[in-house]
Every structure is written in C-alpha cells, then in structure tokens.
C-alpha cells in the first residue's frame, strides 16, 4: 500500500476513534481544552479543568490503538485539574470523588491510574455504599510518573519527584526524590 494512502487511512481511523469517545462522554463541565492524540472518555458530574498544552496519548507507545484515556469527576463536588504542559501517555485512568490536582510540567506514563477514593465503603456492612472518606490527591510540578503506576487517595507527590515503573503509591512523598516499589518507598534523593 502506498505510504501516503496508509498514513491518510490511519489519520481517519484515529479521528473516528477520538470522535466516538468524545460523543460517548457525558461530562459537560469542562474549563479549558486539551489535545487528544488518543481517545478521551470524560464522564461524571464534577469539573474538569485543563491548563494550556495538556496532551493525551502518545503515538509511538504501547496501547495507542487499543485503549483510551478515562477521566471521571464522579460527583458534583469532584474536580480534576490539569496544569500547563501536562503530557499523559496511553490508557490512563483518573477518577475523582473529591479533588485530584496534576500540576504544571507533569509527565505520566502509559497505563497509569490515579484515584482519590476507594469507591466503596471498606466496612463489610456498608460495602455497597460509596466511599465516605475520599481524600485529595496532588501531583506537584515537574513530576515524572513511569508506566503502570497506581496513585491512591490522600497522596501528595512533591515537586520534581520521579515515580518508578510499576509502583503503587499509598502515601505522600517529599520533593526531589525517586520513589518506587509496592508499596512505593524512597529509593534515592535527587
């Protein structure tokens, strides 16, 4: 197949996927804009705030054609804020019942999850109820999050910190460190 024809067909395919997920999205409470290189499904009753130069998806990275970004500000009081120059790789999931803030100049690897809630009450007698205690998540400026990372409720990641691939972040960390592991711990000062 001619290279130009192939590139044209790929561009049409990408555009149709992005349109489909945009059409399926039900969150209409957005401030600012983002660039979708990969489909973004945005749901929920809360606010989504985008700074300048926010990008979803990386063409030359795994899961580009087989996944999408999922962003949900689940409740009316929930807010997800993206600062300026935020770049998010493929297949991310960011779900808030309270507040998630991703500051300026943050890089997020593919297949990452950020949540400020357990989503269900952990008490066995109330398991079908929503989490009564969501806790804010803050990813500070210039943080680099590797691939396959999970960040749980109540976490604050300090500025300039690097989160190693495959980490599960269950507690807060200061600025200027490399963290990694399950659960994450400080591996090195920067």
UniProtKB/TrEMBL annotation:
| Stretches that traverse the bilayer | none
Aminoacyl-tRNA synthetase recorded as keyword = no
Question: What organism does the record attribute this protein to?
Answer: Aequorivita lipolytica
- Name the UniProt key words of this record, in alphabetical order: Acyltransferase, Transferase
* Protein name as catalogued: Acyltransferase
Q: Name one Pfam family in it.
A: Hexapep
This entry's Gene Ontology molecular function terms read:
acyltransferase activity
- Mind giving the lineage of the organism this protein is from? Bacteria, Pseudomonadati, Bacteroidota, Flavobacteriia, Flavobacteriales
């Amino acid at each position: 197949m001619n290279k130009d024809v192939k590139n044209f067909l790929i561009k049409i395919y990408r555009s149709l996927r992005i349109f489909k997920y945009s059409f399926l999205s039900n969150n209409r409470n957005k401030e600012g804009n983002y660039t979708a290189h990969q489909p973004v499904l945005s749901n929920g009753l809360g606010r989504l705030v985008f700074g300048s130069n926010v990008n979803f998806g990386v063409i030359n990275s795994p899961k580009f054609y087989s996944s999408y970004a999922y962003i949900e500000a689940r409740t009316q009081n929930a807010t997800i804020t993206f600062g300026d120059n935020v770049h998010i790789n493929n297949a991310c999931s960011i779900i808030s019942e309270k507040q998630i803030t991703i500051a300026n100049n943050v890089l997020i690897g593919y297949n990452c999850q950020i949540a400020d809630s357990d989503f269900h009450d952990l008490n066995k007698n109330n398991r079908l109820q929503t989490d009564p205690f969501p806790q804010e998540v803050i990813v500070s400026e210039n943080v680099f999050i590797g691939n396959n990372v999970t960040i749980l409720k109540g976490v604050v990641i300090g500025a300039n910190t690097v989160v190693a691939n495959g980490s599960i972040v269950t507690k807060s960390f200061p600025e200027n460190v490399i963290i990694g592991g399950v659960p994450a711990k400080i591996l090195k000062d920067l």
